[in-house]
UniProtKB/TrEMBL annotation:
<dbReference type="GO" id="GO:0051213">
    <property type="term" value="F:dioxygenase activity"/>
</dbReference>
<dbReference type="InterPro" id="IPR004360">
    <property type="entry name" value="Glyas_Fos-R_dOase_dom"/>
</dbReference>
<feature type="domain" description="VOC">
    <location>
        <begin position="157"/>
        <end position="283"/>
    </location>
</feature>
<dbReference type="InterPro" id="IPR037523">
    <property type="entry name" value="VOC_core"/>
</dbReference>
<dbReference type="InterPro" id="IPR029068">
    <property type="entry name" value="Glyas_Bleomycin-R_OHBP_Dase"/>
</dbReference>
<protein>
    <submittedName>
        <fullName>Ring-cleaving dioxygenase MhqA</fullName>
    </submittedName>
</protein>
<dbReference type="Pfam" id="PF00903">
    <property type="entry name" value="Glyoxalase"/>
</dbReference>
<keyword id="KW-0560">Oxidoreductase</keyword>
<feature type="domain" description="VOC">
    <location>
        <begin position="6"/>
        <end position="132"/>
    </location>
</feature>
<keyword id="KW-0223">Dioxygenase</keyword>
<dbReference type="InterPro" id="IPR052537">
    <property type="entry name" value="Extradiol_RC_dioxygenase"/>
</dbReference>
Length: 326
């Protein structure tokens, strides 16, 4: 088996697509690379924010669930999603920008020997900006040239993803024995009296290929809602490699979805022992499959298997204007 290449995407929940679009494109300066629908519920949007081309490893995606309630944080959850910025100087810029836009943040701190800013979006999703100043692993993407943020300060893609569990042992087994992660570091928890947070990496390692595992014995199970994370996906080279992973997961008798065609990539889903949803996703074919690079995300894109229902699908969606001046 080839090693997993790192983080592919993270998918979260929003109750308000319009507000979500404004925050991630105008304030964080990410590019909406795909406006489509949730393939499991076509009455709601699925929005993909990423770098200029939607390169794998740069996508933060949102399912719109208008009636989603409040998230009550806890264990068996993806409790933090990181976004990479080029260096420490960029992080200083971001500290000022977040304050300028009244974005709730904790200022610049150090975590796992890197400078970071923990912050929350309007729905209280837990996010972190992490500096790539010392990164020597997976390369980041390329910020969008038409971003509201200067290119030399822009978000490069996804950084470490934090999992919070009550009992870490079975999750460690899933990461290291089923998947291809190795423990590479640990750092103190910010929660009083809790064990150190363990750092696992795969592939080339670095900020784009890490899972941080937090053990908490003082929290209930998370009740997800708006601002919670639905799943994390890991990068697989291609469909042939994904088929090998399916065979491996089947052999280990882990319940799974089988291969799923998401059109922009192929996927396989399963839950690790603490109930957190993992996805393996191929690097291609990518988001330019059905739209020109210059116009990604500007109109509603539907996979071919939904195209004959376009009129019906569009009628159920609340209009969301994502056209941009060129």
């Amino acid at each position: 088996m080839e090693q997993l290449k790192g983080i592919h995407h993270v998918s979260a929940i929003t109750a308000n697509a319009k507000q979500n679009y404004h925050f991630y494109t105008e304030i964080l300066g990410m590019r909406l690379v795909k406006k489509t629908v949730n393939q499991d519920d076509t009455s709601v949007y699925h929005l993909f924010y990423a770098d200029e081309k939607g390169n794998p490893g740069t996508d933060l995606t949102y399912f719109e669930i208008p009636r989603a309630g409040t998230t009550y944080p806890g264990v068996s959850s993806i409790s933090d999603t990181s976004l990479r910025v080029p260096n420490d100087q960029a992080l200083e810029y971001w500290h000022n920008r977040l304050n300028e836009y009244n974005v709730d943040n904790d200022g610049i701190t150090i975590e796992n020997e890197r400078n970071v800013i923990h912050f929350r979006d309007p729905e209280k999703q837990r996010l972190t900006l992490v500096s790539d100043e010392t990164n020597v692993g997976v390369q980041g993407g390329n910020p969008w040239a038409n971003s509201t943020v200067p290119a030399d300060k822009g978000i490069l893609g996804l950084g470490p993803v934090k999992l919070t569990v009550n009992n870490p042992a079975p999750t460690i087994t899933a990461l290291t024995e089923l998947l291809t992660f190795k423990q590479v570091n640990s750092y103190p928890s910010s929660a009083k009296g809790q064990p150190d947070i363990l750092v696992f990496a795969t592939g080339e390692g670095g900020t784009g290929a890490e899972i941080h595992l937090e053990e908490r014995n003082d929290l209930p199970k998370e009740r997800p809602g708006r601002g919670s994370v639905h799943h994390v996906a890991f990068r697989v080279k291609d469909e042939a490699e994904l088929a090998k992973w399916r065979e491996r997961i089947q052999t280990q008798r882990v319940p799974n979805s089988g291969l799923v065609d998401r059109f922009y990539f192929k996927s396989l889903y399963f839950r690790e022992p603490n109930g957190i949803l993992f996805e393996l996703a191929t690097d291609g074919p990518g988001f330019a499959t059905d739209e020109a690079i210059d116009h990604l995300g500007e109109s509603l894109a539907l996979p071919p298997f939904f195209e004959d229902r376009r009129e019906e699908i569009e009628a159920k969606l609340k209009p969301l204007d994502t056209k941009r001046p060129h």
